[in-house]
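Board notes (copied after class):
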Amino acid sequence: MKVTSMEEYGLRCMLQLALAQTDGPVSVALIAENEGLSNEYAGKLLNLLRQAELVKSVRGRNGGFVLAHPPADI
């Protein structure tokens, strides 16, 4: 089974959210920095994951992304 680079990076973004040390949302910039991606590409991946209802977006100054379900359920 082949996994595309987009799928791999999407999974890695979700792992960043699952392993986050905070209870709040994680910013796109932080995820992009940790994974070595551009902010635009990380944002695109996270928006695709949001559309698939795997993550939720939080708006505002301290906004970002959180997992839509507990990590054990995913």
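Comment from the instructor: The CA atoms of residues 47 and 57 lie 8 Å apart. The two ends are 20 Å apart (CA to CA).
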